[in-house]
Amino acid sequence: MENSTTNDVRGVTNAPNTVADDVMEVAKKMHWVTSSIFGTIFVIVGIVGNILSVLIWSRKSMRTSTGVYLIAQALSDMGLLFFFFITDSLTMLVPSVKTSYAFGVFFSYIGYPIFFLFVVYSIWMTVGVTVDRYIQVCWFTKAKEMCSNKRAVVGIGIIAFLCFLINTPHFKTYYPIPASDREPDDAAFDLTEFGMTEGSKRYEFWVHCMFLVLVPWLTIFILNMLIISRVVRANRGMSKRKSIQGQEKAKKAENQMTRLLLTVTFVFLILIALQCVTQCFFMMQPEIADMRIVNEAFSVAKLGIVINSSINFFLYCLSARKFRKELFKVLGLRRGDREESFSSSTASTTLSTAKFKMSFKA
């Protein structure tokens, strides 16, 4: 068998064999399916859901510091989904677009770096929301001062600035290739000298991967555990002063809070973990691994980031009654008003019936 080699996007070469080639074909098919089919579906659903989220969190009754952070997160998620479609899904659906010099310029200087910028924005906005919630629950005496809308905007600005600084090397990773300097079927972009250096690989592993996944997840997990602990202690302290009905209501609220926080934390972990593991494996480049397959697996794993940016709207709908009520108003269904009208009408009818009975007895 000839020792031919195949280059992946990072310039790594590996001698193919029959088994590896078969696995490679499966990995390519998975990449095509996840990017062109599932990726496109999640992008459409996610953008619509995030638009609705922005409209709802922008309403007067929802204007809190938490709402401000969630608006910023929804905008970040929309940017992430849009650039994922342009840089990944579109190249799977229309492969010839990669040979366009205009696309090469876009991918090198805008598409690739901005996609990862929105990835970092989205994840660290989740950290911002968690910190805001932690202050309101655990430092409630200082919450009014520290959790104002103005401070939330400042916090978002600081997060955005720091994320941009962290992501700066991605703007120097690729460069466009004119048609005269490549074959007609070759991609119109390639790695720069910096993109092929060990420094770039160390940045991806130690700075981007760790800063992107490990630190945010640990922060969110620890703060959520502290919030849950605080809620449990508060409910236990109030149980002696509540009726049995009140205790049951508090217990249900406590369980709902616990489920919600743990769901948000572990959904984030599961959806991001695969991307992190494959990226770390990709950066270490072990000798036993076929890097062509690892590269395709890394591309598939990015779908976890896309799903994470697409499902927040549905999590809000499932866990927040007030959010659902505002959603019905935005959609023109005004279910909340009908419920209130029905309750008022029922109360009025009950009162009238009681008065009639008293008059009849008299």
Task: Describe what this molecule looks like in 3D.
This protein is an all-alpha fold and 362 residues long. The protein has a single domain, classed as Rhodopsin 7-helix transmembrane proteins (Rhopdopsin 7-helix transmembrane proteins, Up-down Bundle), CATH 1.20.1070. It has eleven helices and four strands, in the order ββαααααββαααααα. The protein has helices spanning 18-57, 65-93, 101-138, 140-146, 149-167, 198-239, 244-284, 291-310, 312-319, 321-330, 335-361; strands spanning 6-7, 13-14, 174-176, 189-191. The strands form two sheets. A two-stranded antiparallel ribbon has the order 1-2. A two-stranded antiparallel sheet has the order 3-4. Helix 1 (18-57) packs antiparallel against helix 2 (65-93), helix 1 (18-57) packs across helix 10 and helix 2 (65-93) runs parallel beside helix 5 (149-167). The longest helix has 42 residues, at 198-239. The relative contact order is 0.12. Mean pLDDT is 76; it is low at 1-16 and 336-362. Keywords: Membrane, Transmembrane, Transmembrane helix. The chain crosses the membrane at residues 32-56, 68-86, 106-131, 152-171, 205-232, 260-285, 297-318. InterPro entries: GPCR-Ligand_Int, GPCR_Rhodpsn, GPCR_Rhodpsn_7TM.
* Overall average pLDDT: 76
The N- to C-terminal Cα distance equals 107 Å
Give the number of DSSP strands. Answer: 4
The dominant shape is elongated
The sequence of SSEs as H and E is: EEHHHHHEEHHHHHH
Alpha-beta content class:
mainly alpha
- What's the helical proportion of residues? over 70%
Strand content: under 5%
For the report, how would you describe the main beta sheet?
Answer: 2 strands, antiparallel
CATH superfamily: Rhodopsin 7-helix transmembrane proteins
Low-confidence stretches: 1-16, 336-362
Q: Order the strands across the largest sheet as they lie in space.
A: 1-2
